[in-house]
Amino acid sequence: xxxxxxxxxxxxDSADAxxxxxxxxxxxxxxxxxxxxxxxxxxxxxxxxxxxAQFILESSTYYVEYSIIALVLTLVIISGEIDLSxxxxxxxSACVFAALYQAGLPIxxxxxxxxxxxxxxxxxxxxxxxxxxxxxxxVTIGTLTLYRGLAQxxxxxxxxxxxxxxxxxxxxxxxxxxxxPVIVFVIISVALAAILGTTVIxxxxxxxxxxxxxxxxxxxxxRRIKLGLFVAMGVASSIGxxxxxxxxxxxxxxxxxxGELQMVLMVMLGGTYIFGGRGSILGTFLASWLLVxxxxxxxxxxxxxxxxxxxxxxLLIISIIATNAIYARTQR
Amino acid sequence: xxxxxxxLSTLLHRREAGIAVMIVLLALVVGAIQPRFLTLExxxxxxxxxxxxxxxxMGQMMVLVARHVDLSIGSILAFSSIIAGIMxxxxxxxxxxxxxxxxxxxxxxxxxxxxxxxxxxxxxxxxVTLGTLSLxxxxxxxxxxxxxxxxxxxPRSLIEMSQTSPIFGIPWIxxxxxxxxxxxxxxxxHVRLGRQIYALGSNPVAAPLRGIKVVPLTILVFTxxxxxxxxxxxxxxxxxxxxxxGITGVGFEFTVIAAVVIGGVSINGGVxxxxxxxxxxxxxxxxxxxLPLLGVSAFWQDVIYGAVIVIALLIxxxxxxxxxxxxxxxxxxx
Lengths: 332, 334
Known about the structure:
The structure holds two protein chains of two kinds.
Chain A: H1 2-8, H2 20-25, H3 28-46, H4 53-60, H5 64-78, H6 86-102, H7 107-130, H8 136-155, E1 174-175, E2 178-179, H9 180-198, H10 200-210, H11 212-217, H12 222-248, H13 259-269, H14 281-300, H15 305-330
Antiparallel strand pairs in A: 1-2
Chain B: H1 3-13, H2 15-33, H3 40-65, H4 73-90, H5 96-121, H6 125-144, H7 156-160, H8 172-190, H9 192-202, H10 206-209, H11 214-240, H12 252-262, H13 274-293, H14 300-333
Helix pairs in contact in B: 2-13, 3-8, 3-11, 3-12, 3-13, 4-5, 4-6, 4-11, 5-6, 5-11, 8-9, 9-11, 12-13, 12-14
């Protein structure tokens, strides 16, 4: 054994290994968690409502649609791409659902059609990025305008509603005192965390984001993985669109306008590296709750919705700077 | 090959030629269906639709050439516009020109902030400006108290800028837009700093090695984009006669990016001309005016913008692939 350690010893001086506490503590998820605790303490001081778990769960139903999509977006960003079109995909798939239902289609079929629309939109994004090799960041700006425009053509300037009673108000259905959308969010979080952390595909997503060329040489089916992730974005957006339609009991083409900012914000606050290769579902999960508390806290504290725009924008920039700084410190 | 055919072939191989052909075709097709399209009145409407997009497009084009993107221009436009509007309303004694200059300076300052954040922390500009898009819009609500500046406060002389004309019935704002385009052309083609933007965008690694000061140059580009968006805000107040914090400039960035990429500016940096961008803006302006004349619902506008961005990206990609192949072939032949 001593022989082996002798030979394994590097010939040149290497940096000391980082102490264990640093490895465990200096990571973006810890920052997110600390912020979450801090935001919770401040919010509880602002209003006694916050010590009530039920209140937080109820407030979270306003944001949980974005949170679900942000989970999938985390995988997309880890793989080195980005998708800015999910809010528009939510609107278009919800408009397809509502328009078909209004045209007399059974509601179940309309929901399936909505999910199929999600698949198609995701596939279109994916093909433009993977087959035509266009940069996802700008392509999805094009498709975001396109999808939002199609939603407008489909739904016009009116809101479509009059869904059956059982469809509306999913945010009020409780299972064990937890609203159904939140349960969906938790289940998807656990599933995606398991896929990312334990399966081969999950590890390959990290590798693709770390070095695409190296992954191609390692025989990873990069194009297939990326295409799959974009399709998953479409499906998640469609689910988010249907949940929003149920919560609002109506659909308009401007549903979730500007939602892409909040989704990207959740992923960035959760410590996913904007240039790909690093990040975790846990981070995005924590960041989603952080955003719920910040947004609800500001509303409870009577801070105008307009000032919240400033806070969200500033948070986005600060969170990328902080995450980049942490990764720069811990790199190699 | 005679000199004339040679001249024609170089002309046809320019990206701008394709856009010019599309403009002529569009005019002929729409004119054939709806003769009203080919009248002076329509020409005037198209001309009035152009300045708003054109001035901001000059800034966005420089940003794209430098291999960045600025998503916050719609909010910067609104901020400058609301600052000017509030100054007109609350400080009526201040000369109009001072309010205008202050508003443009505000736009420049917001653009400067974009540039500083992008360069200081080395962040992707698209995410930074997505953040400032929201942040600046929040500032617009904050300074205005979420109140609209009503038409009676916008000075008559400013509104007349888009109604009266010094020459040939061409409104002042149209002339202003083309003067800005000419200045941008001069800056990008004949000034060292302007050429350096192309160098920076075509190869960000090589640029500093050739002595280009990347950080100040990038900040300058974002500042100019912000200032031009600010000027667009003034034109907006002149054209529409009011400023609303929740409406003014929302989604404007997508229109401008669509116009610029139609004009052949590459999102990969280093490629793009003022002439191409001007033609792209004209094409987009024509489409906007043609839609209602053809009886197409205005709802289709965003679909067309989106499709146009995607198609322009695909064309740009195929052009780049082709020139890369031609280069490789030329090298192996030599």
